[in-house]
């Protein structure tokens, strides 16, 4: 149970003089900042010359913050190794797919798999942990910063050697690799593991097995680096450890957070793209089930760099952004950054105060967040986020598959976000579930855009269905093996048999003139699609016109106490959205989902539960106001007023907290 809500900012005291630091601390106290994150880019301040490490400055900062009632999250500075590490040592640097070797500067320029980098990273991490690990005021750790945000898979010679070792571990023999990859294609068969290339620059396209597996190799290696740092810190500190990540980065977040203590993320979604903000809250809540997540970075106004900038938030938005996060399971809401940077590549980025120490355009909104935090803290700390009855599977492994096979530039994050938004806008309380998640307590599960479905996931999903759940699978799900090859036993492998269908064809629907009819709606169909012949299933949606008229693209099979529903193609356009919403509505009703409201689009209901009671956080996020029907009367926990059952209206960027009976969501 969370005992305190944090309102924080990233801070870089190494960039400022002692008098500026004193000024900053005083303004932080006035603004209600109760936690700072420090150190992630400060390696050169900690170790200006190789082997000469001095952490005294940061020890003093943590102590000074603590004396002023401000806690600290300490970071490891490994995204920015100093010039002594990089100068004259290209073998230590990141190499991109075109063979370009990074030079010193910016960040994430080293190869994180380089042996010497790992040694030096371990040494500085241990020194930091020893120096500050037991200090009063230290409440947590962040490893590095935004793993693989600016870079993807490294193609250096050191990584090539590690790649070969990884392949040996995975396949055992080169014959097994050749067989799994179908390597006789284009004479790609290898005689030894040492001959297997990295998927660098090529005349056309690399073998899908090669490219997808190299991504998975990279995912595992960055997670191993995270694990190494965490193991060192735990020798000297009992404080919880995290990393600030994103679905945009080239990592497998489920694997990354496996051995960390809590999950945190960065978000710079603009005010008019709230679905991209909310999806992160609904996902990160489930990476460490039962442990509140942190928003480690978001802008108080706008994001920007030397080359770009985003539209600033309108007044009032930041407060409801924070309230929504806390209601959906955040323990902390933190800004990047506190004082505007006077140098470097992110000088224009939004901040709480300017580089000359005055309030920025977002400052008054920060004060509004602090007032809201104080008001809702007793409510949040006495309740927990309510587990949803509806889940949607999320997979970073699938992100790798779609990077290898994007068809017409399919973008994993966009696909997932748009499908998620169909659930969100229908007032359905939802969880975004990492693919390894326990499915206990859910009634309805959507699994779109997972080209590869593991045997383990299929087994859990089957058990979920047999116990009474409804599983809606697709589109673009199940058509590839673990090695990113096509099934040879059935179109969608084991899923065909489980779903009671025969996959007749798979082909792109775009441009074929095909219409899909289901739930009384006719819609164009799109994307790479699967067409079914129901065997032990029933056709729910059929094709009209096109290449396979009268065949099924939606099927339903009763299995045990539940159902498996196959969605073989993506309805598109306005009618496609109507059809998908009809599908979601139908199976939400069929599954007996109760955690649903008639809240208007742009406003959300975030349910939380306490000891024998339920609280609705109702938050307008689009600035247009909204409304929702209260199923019964309740108590407004902020005003103390009783509110009747029926329609409740909210104004522009308004939020309400209503305590209801336990039987309501």
From TrEMBL:
Limits of the Glycoside hydrolase family 42 N-terminal domain: 11-374
GO molecular function: beta-galactosidase activity; metal ion binding
InterPro entries: Beta_galactosidase_C (IPR013739), Beta_galactosidase_Trimer (IPR013738), Class_I_gatase-like (IPR029062), GH (IPR017853), Glyco_hydro_42 (IPR003476), Glyco_hydro_42_N (IPR013529)
Catalytic site: 146 (proton donor), 297 (nucleophile)
UniProt: substrate binding residues: 107, 145
Coiled coil: none
Domain Beta-galactosidase trimerisation, residue spans: 388-591
Residues noted as binding Zn(2+) in the record, renumbered to the chain: 111, 154, 156, 159
Catalytic reactions of this protein: Hydrolysis of terminal non-reducing beta-D-galactose residues in beta-D-galactosides
Keyword vocabulary terms for this entry: Glycosidase, Hydrolase, Metal-binding, Zinc
Protein name per Swiss-Prot or TrEMBL: Beta-galactosidase
Positions of the Beta-galactosidase C-terminal domain: 602-656
Family: Belongs to the glycosyl hydrolase 42 family.
Pfam family, one: Glyco_hydro_42
EC number(s) from the headed UniProt entry: 3.2.1.23
GO biological process entries: galactose metabolic process
Recorded GO CC terms: beta-galactosidase complex
């Amino acid at each position: 149970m969370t005992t305190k809500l944090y309102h924080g900012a990233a801070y870089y005291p190494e960039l400022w003089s002692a008098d500026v630091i004193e000024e900053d601390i005083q303004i932080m106290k006035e603004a209600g900042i109760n936690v700072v994150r420090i150190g992630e880019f400060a390696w050169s301040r900690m170790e200006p010359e190789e082997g000469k490490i001095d952490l005294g400055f940061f020890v003093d900062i943590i102590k000074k913050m603590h004396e002023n009632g401000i806690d600290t999250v300490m970071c490891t500075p490994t995204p920015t190794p100093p010039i002594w590490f990089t100068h004259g040592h290209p073998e230590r640097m990141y190499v991109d797919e075109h063979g370009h070797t990074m030079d010193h500067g910016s960040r994430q320029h080293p190869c994180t798999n380089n042996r010497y980098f790992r040694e030096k990273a371990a040494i500085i991490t241990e020194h930091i942990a020893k120096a500050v690990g037991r200090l009063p005021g230290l409440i947590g750790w962040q490893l590095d910063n935004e793993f693989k945000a600016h870079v993807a898979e490294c193609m250096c010679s050191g990584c090539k050697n590690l790649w070969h070792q990884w392949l040996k571990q995975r396949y055992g023999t080169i014959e097994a690799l050749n067989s799994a990859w179908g390597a006789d294609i284009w004479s790609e068969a290898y005689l030894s593991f040492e001959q297997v290339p990295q998927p660098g620059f090529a005349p056309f396209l690399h073998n899908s097995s090669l490219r997808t597996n190299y991504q998975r190799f990279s995912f595992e290696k960055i997670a191993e680096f995270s694990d190494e740092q965490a193991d060192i810190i735990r020798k000297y500190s009992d404080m919880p450890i995290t990393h600030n990540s994103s679905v945009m980065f080239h990592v497998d977040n489920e694997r990354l957070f496996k051995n960390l203590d809590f999950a945190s993320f960065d978000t710079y979604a603009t005010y008019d793209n709230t679905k991209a903000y909310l999806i992160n809250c609904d996902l990160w809540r489930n990476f460490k089930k039962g442990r509140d997540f942190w928003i480690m970075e978001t802008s108080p106004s706008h994001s920007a760099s030397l080359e770009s900038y985003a539209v600033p938030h309108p007044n009032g938005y930041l407060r409801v952004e924070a309230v929504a996060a806390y209601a959906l399971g955040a323990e902390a809401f933190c800004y990047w950054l506190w004082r505007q940077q006077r140098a470097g590549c992110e000088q224009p980025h939004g901040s709480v105060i300017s580089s000359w120490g005055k309030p920025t355009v977002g400052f008054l909104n920060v004060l509004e967040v602090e007032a809201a935090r104080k008001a809702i803290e007793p409510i949040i700390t006495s309740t927990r986020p309510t587990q949803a009855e509806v889940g949607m599977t999320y997979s970073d492994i699938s992100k790798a598959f779609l990077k290898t096979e994007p068809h017409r530039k399919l973008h994993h994050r966009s696909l997932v976000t748009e499908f998620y938004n169909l659930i969100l806008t229908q007032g359905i309380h939802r969880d975004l579930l990492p693919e390894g998640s326990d499915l206990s307590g859910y009634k309805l599960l959507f699994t779109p855009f997972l080209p590869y479905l593991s045997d383990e996931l299929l087994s859990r999903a089957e058990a979920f269905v047999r116990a009474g759940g409804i599983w809606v699978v697709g589109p673009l799900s199940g058509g590839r093996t673990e090695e990113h090859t096509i099934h040879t036993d059935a179109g969608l492998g084991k899923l065909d048999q489980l779903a009671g269908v025969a996959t007749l064809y798979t082909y792109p629907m775009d441009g074929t003139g095909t219409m899909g009819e289901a739930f009384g709606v006719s819609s164009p169909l799109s994307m790479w699609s699967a067409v079914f012949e129901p065997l032990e299933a029933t056709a729910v949606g059929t094709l009209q016109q096109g290449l396979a008229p009268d065949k099924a693209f939606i099927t339903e099979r009763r299995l045990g106490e539940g159902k498996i529903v196959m969605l073989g193609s993506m309805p598109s356009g306005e009618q496609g959205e109507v059809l998908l919403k009809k599908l979601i509505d139908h199976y939400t009703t069929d599954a007996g989902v109760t955690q649903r409201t008639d809240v208007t689009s742009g406003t959300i209901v975030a349910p939380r539960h306490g000891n024998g009671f339920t609280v609705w956080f109702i938050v307008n996020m689009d600035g247009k106001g909204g409304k929702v029907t209260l199923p019964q009367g309740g108590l407004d926990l902020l005003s103390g007023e009783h509110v009747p059952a029926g329609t409740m209206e909210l104004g522009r960027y308004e939020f309400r907290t209503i305590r209801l009976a336990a039987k309501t969501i």
